[in-house]
Amino acid sequence: MRTVTVGVLGCGTVGQDVLHLLRRRKDIFDNLGVRVEVAGVLVRDTAKARSVPGGTPLTTDPTFLQECGVVIEALGGIDSPLALLRPYLRSDRPVITANKALLAERWDELREYALDGRLYYEASVMAGTPVIGPMSTVLRASTFVRLQAVLNGTCNYILTQMEGGKTYAQALEEAQALGYAEDPPTLDVGGFDTAHKLTVLARFCADGNFPYEAVQIEGIEGVTLDDVAEARAAGQRIKLVAELARDGDGWHARVSPQRLPETHPLCTAGASRNALVYEGEESGTLIFAGGGAGGMVTASAMVGDLLDWLIGFPGHVPLH
């Protein structure tokens, strides 16, 4: 039985559920002949109440990273986690993250580690619903044509509530009260979270260097009850859609509210979840749908990435 030391950055909802899942799936690690040892969990305040397994080593001192074989990043944000991960990545050790903003906006620095197979980030898009894995493996053989996706649960919730007659402001307030939307909610409702995720996807099916700045972004702040009612009267629903398609010799990437037929897969499979429609010349049309947020849903993908690393599968390698 070999011991693998794991460091966890952040202990919010996702970080806590990662720690619980590592304990819950001990049988899988045992079958691999591995004992997972959490060397440390970096937090801002060790006295804050958290739901973590007994004996979890919470600390404000990141020096424990020096002894870790793998790091799971669940902090969020961009510059702070990158500062912590930078020396770790440079030491040729693997990182598992769900941080789509970091991946989208700091790709110039992270790309070399992804190309080396040391960066695992299935959870960064659609959380526990696997889309990056297929795009980085079997779908490489198919000529990519187009994708459309609903990738933000907060916007999905707000637009669905508006279909029931609530104003945008009422639906947003409710989403915040339920913990679906951040305060301020700009990343979600402004379309930026979706654009981050679309950028990550584009690097697997269009261009390995696809820049975040190339995504045209329009959020849902301007959608009114009249807009929603007009769409419903026409047999349509309004969704915040991420879209990527060929445009001449390049690619057109856009995030915007769109009216879609009620029968569209993004309105049926993605009624209350994230959903993605992938079109390839050889593969045809594929539909992915499932939970795109939530602590345990996200943790399932992150621990899955840990298992991939233990088995010997490389991280998620973009197009070269």
TrEMBL record:
Keyword field: Amino-acid biosynthesis, Methionine biosynthesis, Oxidoreductase, Threonine biosynthesis
Root EC class: oxidoreductase
Keyword field contains Oxidoreductase: yes
Domain Homoserine dehydrogenase catalytic as annotated: residue spans: 130-307
Pathway: Amino-acid biosynthesis; L-threonine biosynthesis; L-threonine from L-aspartate: step 3/5; Amino-acid biosynthesis; L-methionine biosynthesis via de novo pathway; L-homoserine from L-aspartate: step 3/3
InterPro entries named in the record: Asp/hSer_DH_NAD-bd, HDH_cat, HDH_short, NAD(P)-bd_dom_sf
Pfam families linked: Homoserine_dh, NAD_binding_3
Enzyme Commission number, as recorded: 1.1.1.3
Domain Aspartate/homoserine dehydrogenase NAD-binding intervals: 10-114
PANTHER family cross-referenced by the UniProt entry: HOMOSERINE DEHYDROGENASE
Family membership: Belongs to the homoserine dehydrogenase family.
Protein name per the record: Homoserine dehydrogenase
Lineage of origin: Bacteria, Thermotogati, Deinococcota, Deinococci, Deinococcales
